Amino acid sequence: MRDFDTIAAIATPPGESGVALIKISGTDAKTIVSEIFKMKTGGIFLNSRPWTMHYGHILEHDSGDVIDEVVVSYFMAPKSYTAEDVVEITCHGGYASTRRILEQVMVMGARPAAPGEFTKRAFLNGRIDLAQAEAVIDIINAKTDQSMRTAMAQSQGRLSREISTIREKLLNMLAFIEVTVDFPEDDLESATAEKVKDNALEIVEKIESLLKTSGEGKIIRDGLRTVIAGKPNVGKSSLLNTLLMENRAIVTDVPGTTRDVIEEYLNLDGIPIILVDTAGIRDTQDIVERIGVDISKQKLVEADLVLFMLDRSRPIDNEDLEIITRLENNRYIVLLNKTDLEDRLDYDHPILQDAIQVSATNGFGISELKKRIKDMFFDGTVKAGEYSVSNDRHKEALMRANESLKDALAALKGNMQLDVVSIDLSTAWSYLGEITGDTLQEDLIDKIFSDFCVGK
């Protein structure tokens, strides 16, 4: 897994910008840049001190022509992002300058970095563990301050410390069992079994406490997929525009105006909402509209939350009832739109008991809607940085570890031999190690880092 050749990549997005950054990491990073960098002071970059910045020009190696005016920074191992020697070249943004500088770095011996390879090297060199490495991509993808704070807490080792503490306790339990098994003449088995039981119960309680944060944590990390559903012309697109505070969707009095799915991000008091406006669900002979209706039905299946809109100026009809039957497996909020018109709904229908009166055009009821969403998913309060588990991989590992611990407790209750109990404890220890990367297979580690962008 360890490949110590020198790598390089453009670390900033492509396109026109004020500045761009080219990152080089590896044993030869400083030597490579010294060959093409002329310092303005006349000094030699190879002799420069670490953690300093130098102004000058990048030259084409063969011709000596100036490519760009740059600032070059040098970070010496192990106090760098990758725990290797790292050189960063800050040049003017744009395609031509960055590409030409990167080409010269390659000519001098570096190779292109693979996606996520800089962070992978930080992990392989022991500067961060796998949970912290995965938090890097969460920081990049964060859509709200809350999701940013949660990702930063993980990148600083919040979850890793808790997992390490649990694994250390499991290791001590395994050592205690081994001593007891190796010295049966001391008659310690009963006392050891009781101690292992107490510790296992304590760890199960801790793991289940972590798992309780996973639902909210996943929403903070990935966003709450919220589908606005209803039959045509009930005000779905108007609600989308009101929530976004911009005219994102076309709104007309003609039923069936929305024929495709519109997705937008909304920051709801720190909760990242993936807001999905769908085509009105109804029977139609229009081929294009029918495709949109089929997509709308699929989006209902995928939704974390459905905002089911009814036009309160019209009685509930068969089209509404068909949508209601599709909500049986969803978490949903019923919105009664068009409060400015005469109310013609029959409130005996059970789905209307907790409905919210709204106006998608003037914003009436939107505050109540936001409060309802927070109450439904976060018990009314979104707590800054308190969601330890936000990654599906981490959740699965915790669940498997918890199952193994419960198997160990069942074995203890059944008065089984301690060396049998130790197998379940060892399995739990291994599952928890997958979170930090201590016991994860190489191909899975490669897959995790392949999802990163090049240059990170």
Automatic annotation (TrEMBL):
<dbReference type="GO" id="GO:0016787">
    <property type="term" value="F:hydrolase activity"/>
</dbReference>
<feature type="binding site">
    <location>
        <position position="254"/>
    </location>
    <ligand>
        <name>K(+)</name>
    </ligand>
</feature>
<dbReference type="InterPro" id="IPR027417">
    <property type="entry name" value="P-loop_NTPase"/>
</dbReference>
<dbReference type="Pfam" id="PF10396">
    <property type="entry name" value="TrmE_N"/>
</dbReference>
<dbReference type="InterPro" id="IPR018948">
    <property type="entry name" value="GTP-bd_TrmE_N"/>
</dbReference>
<dbReference type="InterPro" id="IPR025867">
    <property type="entry name" value="MnmE_helical"/>
</dbReference>
<feature type="binding site">
    <location>
        <position position="456"/>
    </location>
    <ligand>
        <name>(6S)-5-formyl-5,6,7,8-tetrahydrofolate</name>
    </ligand>
</feature>
<dbReference type="InterPro" id="IPR027368">
    <property type="entry name" value="MnmE_dom2"/>
</dbReference>
<comment type="function">
    <text>Exhibits a very high intrinsic GTPase hydrolysis rate. Involved in the addition of a carboxymethylaminomethyl (cmnm) group at the wobble position (U34) of certain tRNAs, forming tRNA-cmnm(5)s(2)U34.</text>
</comment>
<feature type="binding site">
    <location>
        <begin position="252"/>
        <end position="258"/>
    </location>
    <ligand>
        <name>GTP</name>
    </ligand>
</feature>
<feature type="binding site">
    <location>
        <position position="233"/>
    </location>
    <ligand>
        <name>K(+)</name>
    </ligand>
</feature>
<dbReference type="InterPro" id="IPR027266">
    <property type="entry name" value="TrmE/GcvT-like"/>
</dbReference>
<feature type="binding site">
    <location>
        <position position="23"/>
    </location>
    <ligand>
        <name>(6S)-5-formyl-5,6,7,8-tetrahydrofolate</name>
    </ligand>
</feature>
<feature type="binding site">
    <location>
        <position position="257"/>
    </location>
    <ligand>
        <name>K(+)</name>
    </ligand>
</feature>
<keyword id="KW-0963">Cytoplasm</keyword>
<dbReference type="Pfam" id="PF12631">
    <property type="entry name" value="MnmE_helical"/>
</dbReference>
<feature type="binding site">
    <location>
        <position position="258"/>
    </location>
    <ligand>
        <name>Mg(2+)</name>
    </ligand>
</feature>
<keyword id="KW-0630">Potassium</keyword>
<dbReference type="InterPro" id="IPR005225">
    <property type="entry name" value="Small_GTP-bd"/>
</dbReference>
<feature type="binding site">
    <location>
        <position position="252"/>
    </location>
    <ligand>
        <name>K(+)</name>
    </ligand>
</feature>
<comment type="similarity">
    <text>Belongs to the TRAFAC class TrmE-Era-EngA-EngB-Septin-like GTPase superfamily. TrmE GTPase family.</text>
</comment>
<feature type="domain" description="TrmE-type G">
    <location>
        <begin position="223"/>
        <end position="378"/>
    </location>
</feature>
<dbReference type="InterPro" id="IPR004520">
    <property type="entry name" value="GTPase_MnmE"/>
</dbReference>
<feature type="binding site">
    <location>
        <position position="127"/>
    </location>
    <ligand>
        <name>(6S)-5-formyl-5,6,7,8-tetrahydrofolate</name>
    </ligand>
</feature>
<protein>
    <recommendedName>
        <fullName>tRNA modification GTPase MnmE</fullName>
        <ecNumber>3.6.-.-</ecNumber>
    </recommendedName>
</protein>
<keyword id="KW-0378">Hydrolase</keyword>
<comment type="subunit">
    <text>Homodimer. Heterotetramer of two MnmE and two MnmG subunits.</text>
</comment>
<feature type="binding site">
    <location>
        <position position="237"/>
    </location>
    <ligand>
        <name>Mg(2+)</name>
    </ligand>
</feature>
<keyword id="KW-0460">Magnesium</keyword>
<keyword id="KW-0479">Metal-binding</keyword>
<dbReference type="Pfam" id="PF01926">
    <property type="entry name" value="MMR_HSR1"/>
</dbReference>
<keyword id="KW-0342">GTP-binding</keyword>
<feature type="binding site">
    <location>
        <begin position="233"/>
        <end position="238"/>
    </location>
    <ligand>
        <name>GTP</name>
    </ligand>
</feature>
<dbReference type="InterPro" id="IPR031168">
    <property type="entry name" value="G_TrmE"/>
</dbReference>
<keyword id="KW-0547">Nucleotide-binding</keyword>
<feature type="binding site">
    <location>
        <position position="88"/>
    </location>
    <ligand>
        <name>(6S)-5-formyl-5,6,7,8-tetrahydrofolate</name>
    </ligand>
</feature>
<keyword id="KW-0819">tRNA processing</keyword>
<feature type="binding site">
    <location>
        <begin position="277"/>
        <end position="280"/>
    </location>
    <ligand>
        <name>GTP</name>
    </ligand>
</feature>
<dbReference type="InterPro" id="IPR006073">
    <property type="entry name" value="GTP-bd"/>
</dbReference>
